[in-house]
Design goal:
With 321 residues, the protein is α/β, with parallel strands linked by helices. α2 packs across α3 and α4 (142-160) runs antiparallel to α5 (163-170). It has an eight-stranded mixed beta sheet, with helices on both faces. Helix content is 43%, strand content 17%.
Length: 321
């Protein structure tokens, strides 16, 4: 069994809402890194801890199940008024809690996909609380994001001669980031997975890739899985219109170090949009890291490289810890 000075799961109150966090650190007093998961509602503490616990040697890792997600889910979420701003407010409040708890001025934030919708807004709003911003699956513009993701699927279907896929995709082109129906969006996401735009080498369906890791991890009990599913399904619908309306194209400057870890084959949040934004970005330190064998989640697709590259980039940005 690993010897950690801190290794616990607990519930904290964030803006009046009870939310669950998971903390792991090899030693007391190490800098805090807050992982902001994707989705909305797709918690990944089990994957972060399984693949990146080496970071606990230098950092206090905090994995957060966001409002209405995973271990933080309650049916009350369906009576709340939710928006992107709700989650940015929650993230800032949690950072404040962690700053007090661990007696530190700042925290590193690591956002994945939907987590970058929160993370970019957070870095712009309160840079004095953030020592560095790590992003992967970088979300920049909802409307352009979905159009390029859809066009990738249609292009791949035509390239390989999959007539059934071409026919199913033909009538569901998104407008302003919105698909004609929830079913249409699921069709697009299934083909995205099949064609390697979600996960590049291990191309599994959405259910298999989400459910099996949950069943195999000690981080979630069997009783947590129905809550996980309910939260993910509800939040994706409740927040989708708000999410795809987001555009960070005009965010040309951030006052914190920015590290983007991007899969070469990512067509969930297409890399070309993120790269164009990054090229225009002004920041005190910025570093773009390509992952050639990854699509949307290099933290899990190339875990050893991701951990090593992030540790190196943080050392360059902040100095050795």
């Amino acid at each position: 069994m690993e010897d950690y000075a801190i290794d616990r799961c607990e519930t904290v109150v964030v803006n009046g809402d009870r939310q669950n966090i998971r903390i792991r650190a090899r030693r007391e007093g190490s800098p805090v890194i807050l992982f902001i998961h994707g989705g909305p509602g797709v918690c990944d503490r089990h994957l972060v801890l399984a693949n990146q616990s080496g970071l606990a040697d230098k950092y206090t890792m905090v994995c957060w199940d966001q409002r209405g997600s995973g271990k933080s889910y309650t049916p009350d979420i369906k009576r709340q008024s939710l928006s992107v701003a709700t989650y940015v407010d929650d993230a800032e409040a949690l950072i404040d809690l962690l700053r007090v708890r661990f007696e530190t001025e700042k925290a590193v934030i690591a956002g994945h996909s939907w987590g970058t919708v929160i993370g970019t807004a957070l870095a712009a709003r309160c840079p004095e609380k953030i020592s560095a911003y790590i992003a992967q699956g970088m979300f920049i513009d909802g409307s352009e994001n979905e159009l390029l993701s859809y066009e990738f699927c249609l292009r791949e279907a035509e390239r390989i001669g999959d007539k059934k896929a071409v026919a199913r995709l033909a009538g569901i082109r998104p407008e302003n980031g919105r698909y004609p129906s929830d079913k249409a969006m699921m069709i697009q996401r299934d083909y995205l997975s099949k064609f390697g735009g979600g996960t590049y080498e291990k191309r599994e369906g959405m259910i298999k890739s989400l459910l099996l890791p949950l069943l195999r991890t000690p981080e979630y009990k069997l009783s947590d899985i129905p809550k996980y599913a309910q939260g993910g399904l509800y939040l994706s619908k409740a927040l989708w219109n708000d999410v795809v309306a987001v555009s960070y194209k005009d965010v040309c400057e951030l006052s914190v170090p920015v590290i983007v870890t991007q899969g070469r084959h990512d067509y969930n949040t297409p890399s070309e949009i993120a790269e164009a934004w990054f090229d225009r970005l002004h920041a005190p330190f910025k570093k773009w890291i390509w992952f050639e064998r990854s699509a949307h989640s290099p933290i899990f697709e190339e875990p050893e490289k991701w951990g090593a590259e992030v540790e190196l980039a943080l050392s360059e940005a902040l100095g050795d810890n």
